[in-house]
Amino acid sequence: MTPIVVGLVVLAGAVAAFLVRARLRHRAPRPMSIDPFTLSEPWRRHVAAAQTTQRRYLQIAGSAADGPLRDRLREIGAQVQHAVEECFGIARRGDALDDALARFDTGSLNRQLASAADEATRTSVQAQLQSAARIRATRDDTDSRLRLLTTRMGELVAQAAEVSVGTDSTDQLGTGVDDVVTQLEALRLALNDINSTGRPATSP
């Protein structure tokens, strides 16, 4: 093979590698823009708590000495970021449930039900009240679960502080964070099912 041909082959390989890297950079997902102040309470508070937890975690991971431990803490940090994004997604859906619930005037509906003179009216009003009750139950369950999971994230940050000073439990920490992320994903998917079917989903 002549030097010219060899040069062309090397150049072609370099160009191909550059294009692959460019495609990967193009496909890399942009970080989600998370603004808790776009939400009402209690959803704003849940997201703000998750963000505070993430900031504490990043401080702890950044304070660890260079080496495998710090690298592992940074890897776990990517899952912590994922957890915050899932929390925000759930909170937005919870906020939407509050909006939907606000459209039901249950006091007026109860009065209509009490004064209904025909079965068709009674059936219609009862259906609306049942819808409001289902939304309320789903909303309250989501609030409770999200509060529990953000509390669990805070517990894991306390564990990360121990790990950063030499306690060899990064595997346990990573498993704990992964478990929180899995539960958050399950909760978000359950809420997606509500949005797509109009029916309460089974508890994740």
How are the SSEs ordered, and which strands pair?
Blueprint: H1 3-27, H2 43-63, H3 68-102, H4 106-115, H5 119-164, H6 170-197
Q: Helix coverage percent of residues?
A: over 70%
Tell me the overall shape. Answer: elongated
Secondary structure tally: strands = 0
* Overall average pLDDT: 85
Count of alpha/pi helices: 6
**Major beta sheet, specifics?**
none
Radius of gyration: 25 Å
Low-confidence stretches: 5-11, 24-29, 200-204
β-strand percent reads under 5%
Class by helix and strand content? mainly alpha
Following the backbone from N to C, one meets helices and strands in this order, namely: HHHHHH
> How far is the first residue's CA from the last residue's CA?
63 Å
